[in-house]
Amino acid sequence: MYVPGGKPRGEYLASQLVMEALFLGAHDVCVQHVNGWWLVSSSSDWLVESSGEQLSILFSEIVPLPEAGDNSMRAEVLLTAFAQDVVTFRGRDLCVITGRADVPEPVWQLVDHLRCLRMVAFRTNEPIS
């Protein structure tokens, strides 16, 4: 019901975060796929600045997204439901949402290189390509 074909593909989950970030005012959203991790980042913090919601609520409850229209919802809860690992960075501050915190070095290098204010990183059970 929440993902096409019932398969939680990383591309779809990342695209939902991108759409949400754009609706919430982020104008420089970046998506990368590194070592099996999907990274969605921006120089603005679309997770909390625009909504005032707490991270724990965004990743654990269905939260409306009225900016995207009637019956729209925030995408973070989909990550908690369908990804094996979910973390978020505000600058270099890491917050583990679910799974393990063993974020690989190439992801940390991108955190440093991109110098984004917010990054959400997640892994699904898909084979690494």
Helix-strand layout with pairing:
Blueprint lengths: L9 H14 L6 E5 L2 E6 L12 H6 L15 H7 L2 E6 L2 E6 L6 H10 L3 E6 L6
Antiparallel strand pairs: 1-2, 2-5, 3-4, 3-5
Q: What's the short version?
A:
This protein is 29% helix and 22% strand. The chain has four helices and five strands. The protein starts with 9 loop residues before the first helix and ends in a 6-residue tail after the last strand.
Report what the structure shows.
It contains four helices and five strands; from the N terminus they run αββααββαβ. The two termini are 26 Å apart. It has helices at residues 10-23, 55-60, 76-82, 105-114; strands at 30-34, 37-42, 85-90, 93-98, 118-123. With 129 residues, it is an alpha+beta fold. The chain is globular and about 40 Å long. Strands 1-2-5-3-4 form a five-stranded antiparallel beta sheet, with helices on both faces. Strand 3 and strand 4 (93-98) form a beta hairpin.
Overall helicity:
25-40%
Strand content: 15-25%
List the helices and strands in order: HEEHHEEHE
Biggest β-sheet, characterized?
A: 5 strands, antiparallel
- Report the C-alpha radius of gyration, rounded: 14 Å
Our measurement of the CA-to-CA distance between the termini, rounded to an integer number of angstroms, reads 26 Å
Q: How many domains is the backbone divided into? A: 1
Oligomer status: single chain
The assigned structural class equals alpha+beta
Indicate the overall shape: globular
For the biggest β-sheet, the strand order reads 1-2-5-3-4
The strand count comes to 5
Low-confidence stretches: none
> Mean pLDDT score, rounded?
88
DSSP helical segment count: 4
